[in-house]
Amino acid sequence: MKQYLDLCQRIVNEGVWVENERTGKRCLTVINAGLTYDVANNQFPLITTRKSYWKAAIAEFLGYIRGYDNAADFRKLGTKTWDANANENQAWLNNPHRKGTDDMGRVYGVQGRSWRKPNGEHLDQLRKIVNNLSKGIDDRGEILTFYNPGEFDLGCLRPCMHTHTFSLLGDTLYLTSYQRSCDVPLGLNFNQIQVFTFLALMAQITGKKAGQAFHHIVNAHIYEDQLALMRDVQLKREPFPSPQLEINPDIKSLEDLETWVTMDDFKVTGYQCHEPIKYPFSV
């Protein structure tokens, strides 16, 4: 929790104002931030200085694992995070590749599970990683990436948290996740939860011990209409101790994640938090 608040304070103190063309708003911005999550000791990085809704974050990443490309499928899992980008992003609405209501295009999990090769075949990046790690293999290229510039025009949004690299030391599994851009008040806790949970799940289904997860962010920013709430409200609150994440031990394979797992298979314990803060969201 401290590293999150330190980053927020750093942006407030040292950030530079940058105009964001996509949203038409200014952002207070710093370059390069790194956070580390202790998955081994189950220190779940859920923000306590405001109420955080962790289920939507896990539901979204489960949708990525399944390769979903439709906002309706994400809603069935329990998150509405793709409704706006699929249905309210004017550039995407005007895109001839859009297939209709709720279509997201070839974004995130589609690239992770069905990367299109030049010969027309598709590559399942995640399956390869799971197969290798289950056998104790780390080829120094256990990399899942959603970042495919050749197909940006086929999706509603470029990936923000775009690449995840797994590493084995003995039987301990580590994760390093890379993010090009982060809306810190709204998006960062979402992404923290996802990085932590992704390592915990991958360790569980490959039979490894979870170690640490490392989260690297290039452009970390606070939008101008979020600044007062962050500076004058959230940063003045004292954090509570970290909660813990419980995952159903019956989840033992990638097939389990693809088929029957729901949000009922996850539980957070020991969560204390301050009142919610309603930060503006920029589409």
From TrEMBL:
The keyword Transferase applies. GO terms for cellular component: cytosol. Pathway: Pyrimidine metabolism; dTTP biosynthesis. The active site is at C160 (nucleophile), C160. DUMP binds at R22, R180, S181, C182, D183, N191, H221, I222, Y223. Its main location: cytoplasm. Residues 2-283 form the Thymidylate synthase/dCMP hydroxymethylase domain. Signal peptide: none annotated. GO terms for biological process: dTMP biosynthetic process; dTTP biosynthetic process; methylation. Its EC number is 2.1.1.45. Keywords: Cytoplasm, Methyltransferase, Nucleotide biosynthesis, Transferase. It comes from the Bacteria. SUPFAM superfamilies: Thymidylate synthase/dCMP hydroxymethylase. PROSITE patterns: THYMIDYLATE_SYNTHASE. It is found in: Cytoplasm. One of its GO terms (molecular function) is thymidylate synthase activity. (6R)-5,10-methylene-5,6,7,8-tetrahydrofolate binds at D183, S282. InterPro entries: Thymidate_synth/dCMP_Mease, Thymidate_synth/dCMP_Mease_dom, Thymidate_synth/dCMP_Mease_sf, Thymidylate_synthase, Thymidylate_synthase_AS. Gene3D superfamilies: Thymidylate synthase/dCMP hydroxymethylase domain. Belongs to the thymidylate synthase family. Bacterial-type ThyA subfamily. Catalyzes the reductive methylation of 2'-deoxyuridine-5'-monophosphate (dUMP) to 2'-deoxythymidine-5'-monophosphate (dTMP) while utilizing 5,10-methylenetetrahydrofolate (mTHF) as the methyl donor and reductant in the reaction, yielding dihydrofolate (DHF) as a by-product. This enzymatic reaction provides an intracellular de novo source of dTMP, an essential precursor for DNA biosynthesis. This is Thymidylate synthase. It comes from Aggregatibacter segnis ATCC 33393. The gene is thyA.
